[in-house]
Amino acid sequence: MAIYPPPQRLWWREPVERMEIWWIVIAFAWGLVMFFTMIAWHVYGRQNLANEAYRIQPETYVARVEAGATRYKVREEGQTGVPVVHPPPGADVYLLGRLWQWWPILELERGQTYRLHLSSADWQHGFSLLPINVNIQVHPGYEMVVTVTPTEAGEFGIVCNEFCGIGHHTMTGKLYVTDKTGGR
Ligand code: CUA
């Protein structure tokens, strides 16, 4: 019965089975392979975003987002009242994460390059662009700047992938990429 100790108190002092040694060697070697793959992938995998980060006061950032939205607004999204913002190619584009939305809706042009700024007004959020795999953590007080060139036209979804409270699952946004140059 398990409630009694084994008869020999030093029951683990046994020679390691040959098969077990092999498993330890394989597991250790595989661990090393994975470790160096991780480093190699960082350098050669072309998985890293071209990004910059700055400190910024949340209020300052919100003011910049609002200024950009006012300046480049082309229409509103349906009945939602959310502005659709179409900045000129090459421009600085501001997107705000806050409880619980991504604001405003951006419209970019395919093949053009933009500096996309991301920050939060309140808590930590996670910018996740769907269906392509772009993920960036968004913190209040830090401004991330990502250089982006959309390669595909269409409608993309933005969700929040960091839990940020009761409305987390409703925190969505949208990004349009148009084929034609010029606003509507
Ligand atoms: Cu914002 Cu979850």
The largest sheet, given as strand count, sense and whether it forms a barrel, is: 7 strands, mixed
* Shape estimate: elongated
Instruction: Please work out how many helical segments DSSP would assign.
Output: 2
Mean pLDDT: 90
What percentage of the residues does DSSP assign to strands (E)? 35-45%
**What is the terminal-to-terminal distance?**
80 Å
Radius of gyration: 25 Å
Q: How many individual β-strands?
A: 12
Structural class: alpha+beta
Helix percent band = 10-25%
* N-to-C series of helices and strands: HEHEEEEEEEEEEE
Q: What small molecules does this complex bind?
A: dinuclear copper ion
| Low-confidence runs | none
Strand order of the largest sheet: 2-3-6-12-11-8-9
Question: Would you give an account of this structure?
Answer:
The protein has 184 residues and is of the alpha+beta class. Helices cover 23% and strands 36% of the residues. The protein contains 2 helices and 12 strands. A 7-stranded mixed β-sheet has the order 2-3-6-12-11-8-9. It has a 5-stranded mixed β-sheet with strand order 1-10-7-4-5, covered by helices on one side. The chain is elongated and about 80 Å long. The model has no long low-confidence stretch (mean pLDDT 90). Dinuclear copper ion (CUA) binds at residues 100, 125, 160, 162-164, 168, 171.
